Amino acid sequence: MHWLLLPESSVELITTSATARMALARLINSPDDVPEAFSFSEGEEHGLGRILSLAQNIILVCIWPPKAKNPAAVAGRNVLAVWCSPEGSTIAALDPPDAAVVLERVAALALRTWNKQAFPQHWHPKNVEGRHTVFAAPQGTLKEMRLAYASSTNVFPAPKGTLRDVQLADATSTSQSTPILRTGNLWQAHKQQHAASVPELPSVELPAQQDPPEHPTSISSDDEPTREEADLRIPATQESYHLFSLTYDKWMAADGPLTPEQRRVVNREIKKPLRIHGPAGSGKTLVLILKTLRLLRDAQERGEKCHILFVVTSNAVANTVKAAFEAIDDRAFLASGKNDDQYLHVDTLHGWCIDELGYIDSTRDVLERDPKESKARQFDILSNAYDNVIAKRQSLIEALCEDFRKLIKNHRIIVLQEIQREISIRIKGRGYKTRDRDRYVRSPAKTFLGRHANIFDKNMIYHFFDTYEERFKEEGLLDTDDVVISMSSSLSTAAWDRKRKELGFDYVMVDEAHLFNENERRVLPLLTRGDSYFPNLVMTFDEAQSIGGTRGLDLESVGIPGSKRENLHAVHRCSPDIFALSRDLVERSPLTFTEFLTEKSKSRMSAAEQKRCRKPTLLYSTNLAETSADKATKLKSDGYWKVGMVVFDRNAYDPIRDKMKERSHEVFEIEQRGEKLGAVPKPGFYLMSPESCGGLEFDAVVLVGVDEGCVPALLDDKVSLEAYQSILEEAFMEVYTAVTRAKYVLAFVCDEHRGISSILRPALASGHIEEI
């Protein structure tokens, strides 16, 4: 098979059905193994497919959803032609899971071309070797391959968002003059020598229509042998959905999968700042996306303007959210611009501030545009500054309070994290400069050391700050707090106040607001148009996941008055047993907030899904890498296709990765929270740290090294309870976040000599975890 032809009805189905895409990807990969009339699993029902050979190297494939009875019109209708030559760099050269991802983009490309819709900005249309190309898949996957395509200009002109200066080749005519969009090879700069070509499709007769088959053969039965090729099937159930599952209308349909409380929040009118609270897995990000689209669609239908800024925590999360908008939104709001009546912009707060502060050059004046990467580099600079001060100020250490001395002596990473927050919030956030040492030292405000701090502690902290700032001044750089505080100052002027109604946003949506510090939260209300006393802000919160974030809300103090709370209680991700463990963790923790509403929150799974669930287990090991690899491999072979491995013992990370690769497993390493690589429903093994696991979901999760002395870090007995409190809170939040990544199965692998962490011992004693 060199050419695969798909009528428009089939194209529409594969944009919404992951199972249909997988069935088609398997056909491309092994065309001889698929019968002429086939069925594939779509929940508890079966979608249908029919294959018709039109010529030696050309087949037509029609696909119908479950319960479909109407024939598929072909001749005279739009047709997608996909080049599948096994000898070229085409979809046929990819493994079926990757081919399915590309098919999703190909189908979306065809529909937008036929309907003359704008292309989303992050497709990055580009002329390569005289051909139109777009990214073949969401950024960050498939090594950013490009897909070459061509269409007939006299049938459908190049839509907005493509390059108009390229003369497209005429589509091959058929006897019925059917308009055809042709896709060619996958082109990748640096690694691929193939030309960006789109071959001509031979002239071919198309049937007027095709009828659904009456006696199909199943191509996705559950009795297939367990083997690596089994990854080609991604089982789906009617009650298991992810961010990319459905379009807006299907999410919002009366019989759709939203719970009544999710639907209520999406439809609620915004009169005051709205806080959406809920445990991990309750669908907060989905609700925020649907609420954004609801506001834009309503404004479009009323003929009114509506500009929305959707704020996220990192570039990785931004890519995931953009891909979700692309999958859900059928009106291309993401492709809009500032001059359009309806405008949607997804960005980090750090990135948006850089763009808006005209005197800041992102390539010259800031460490990194991505706030996640910028804060990591800031930490390295602070680390060097800290070492320099400690080496030069040894005489001052003896004058410090006991807590500070113990932290400096034994717990370098912990004290660095606390100093970083001190500089960010209590020094820069309060407007102190290097010349303001006396103001800071004599200020009655407490430091992270609490009531035990003395004047020498504050002087030492300021030495760290001075040395840190000196490095930035030498290189003329700004850190993330400098950027946000500069933006806050700019937005607090009379000049902005006069322009705010014109230049501000109608709504600002903030995902994972618990991860923003006080400096960042202070900017958020200033981004709105300011035409009412209460800013139009919508924020999601789960403070039990606020690793490195701000634990208290205190929104009034940062200019967000009168906020109203909406709670999402139904947890869609975790099994009842995993949910019970996560609830137990929060109830037993020293956490000082109540985001996890344990009296009402509950797991929501179908009976079929609950059959796949297992009670959380604990395994002891003398070789963490070996045991973890064994457990992960066993889970995959048992049918849990997507396995996450969260490593708490940093010394075990590299050995685990090497052990998995030694067994010829492909391992995806998650480096940032909410990364698209981990968000897509793709089978495989995913390796990460506790800091980077947030916002992701896996069929099964293995937690490695949640051991005594490791979580939380072992501190000297003489350290005060006050100094230890924040460290203990951080440990509880890390474990809670990691536990709630698992949907069906959760396993702990602990060092036999250290034993399980004291954090988990009560859960073990009460039966929430089963010892093996």
Plain-language structure description:
The chain is of the alpha/beta class. It is 35% helix and 17% strand. The chain has 24 helices and 27 strands. The strands form five sheets. It has a ten-stranded mixed β-sheet, with helices on one face. Helix 5 packs across helix 6 (284-302) and helix 8 packs across helix 15.
Blueprint (SSEs and pairs):
Blueprint: E1 3-7, H1 8-16, H2 18-29, E2 37-42, E3 45-55, E4 58-64, E5 72-73, E6 79-83, H3 96-114, E7 126-128, E8 131-135, E9 146-150, E10 180-187, E11 209-210, E12 217-218, H4 248-252, H5 260-267, E13 274-277, H6 284-302, E14 306-312, H7 315-328, E15 342-348, H8 349-356, H9 371-392, H10 394-397, H11 402-410, H12 412-428, H13 437-442, H14 455-475, H15 480-491, H16 494-503, E16 507-510, H17 518-523, E17 537-541, E18 564-567, E19 570-571, H18 576-588, E20 602-603, H19 607-610, E21 617-621, H20 624-637, E22 642-647, H21 650-662, E23 667-669, H22 676-679, E24 684-688, E25 698-704, H23 721-739, E26 742-751, H24 761-765, E27 770-771
Parallel strand pairs: 1-4, 2-12, 6-10, 13-17, 13-18, 14-15, 14-16, 16-17, 19-20, 21-26, 21-27, 22-24, 22-25, 23-24, 25-26
Antiparallel strand pairs: 1-6, 2-3, 3-4, 5-11, 7-8, 8-9, 9-10
Helix pairs in contact: 1-2, 1-3, 2-3, 5-6, 8-15, 9-14, 12-14, 18-23, 20-21
